[in-house]
Amino acid sequence: MSTADAKLWLDRINALKITETIKIMNVCGGHERALNQAGLRTLLPSKIELIPGPGCPVCICPEEAIAMAMNIALNESAIVVTFGDMMRVPINAAKAEPRSLEQARACGGDIRPIASPIEARLIALQHPNQQVLFFMAGFETTTAPTAALITEGIPDNLLLLLAARRTWPAVAHLLSDERPGFDALIAPGHVSAVMGSDEWRFVADQHQLPVAVAGFDAASLLAAIYSVITQKQRGKAELENCYPSVVTTAGNRIAQQLIEQTMNVVDSRWRGIGTIPASGYALNKSACAHDAHIHFSQYAINNDQNHHMPPGCDCAQVVLGKCYPNQCRLYGSACTPSTPIGPCMVSDEGACRIWWANGLHKTLAHKQA
Fold first, then answer.
1. Is 127 helix (H, G, I), strand (E, B) or coil?
2. Strand ranges (DSSP E) for 73-195?
3. Domain ranges of the chain
4. What are phi and psi of 139, to 5 degrees?
5. Would you give the distance in Å from CA 179 to the centre of its chain?
6. What CATH number was assigned to the domain covering residues 1-311?
7. What is the pTM of this model?
8. SS3 of residue 256 by DSSP
């Protein structure tokens, strides 16, 4: 869609008579970034609140997975590779111990950032006599190519440490609260491209909340915002696909089949939230020979407290849509992109990092979500 399309949708929204505040959660960190870069919060009517949601895989990756990857790198003759934004995610640790993969690398661990599962395969092939561990944290959009990596033939010396998560169960978890904190939902475009728009139909059918799938340009986002507002005003909750150029009802069946062939759906921990039923993936029997949880089981940590954020950090509330980033007690003071305390200040999809990068600092006043 063009800039003219965006202006058209913005004019339509501003022409609506909105008498009551409507709180719209955007699940995806990519959506949050696009909203801020386009300055949409400053252009929309004041009664429209856009609330960041739990759609940042780096932010919700459990501490025990990061700690396991760090311990393997520091104690085994193994190369650990992971997506670049995982390198700086802090965990709770003693002051004398490394608190991130980046710090573990500084302590001697062979830890390397990569941008694609293909790079993990290449590094494993380049080092056939050394164990290579691919620590993969991500949603369905990165789970599918990881499943393809397995299906196409994975090197014997490549292990996978999965922190793969399914997006819709987190939203279902939020909606199970008697007061979920939002009145409508903008569903993630990339996840929907893989899993299909119908995956979000439960929001309208079971919870009677308007929902629209959006792309990542201003026009598509504004079209989705217009859709959920008008649904709310009509008193009829529906699912609308505002990203039809990429998203279909059923999604990418080949990608889904690859995931089904290599992985099982399991209960999984989300940092800041806790365990959510059927919200993650684990390697199935066909791929268990490459499961780092089995090969390096001595480094596995099972502690229900490990979903907690650092002391004073309100990232959990941000992830749950209960507060805005600049309402965190540490935001802009102890916690900045150069010295992140919580995970939401690290990734380009983390709400705190996005707000900071777009000049939304602690001095700005925002309403409680």
1. coil
2. 78-83, 111-114, 131-138, 158-164, 184-187
3. 1-311, 315-357
4. -95, -165
5. 22
6. 3.40.50.11740
7. 0.92
8. helix
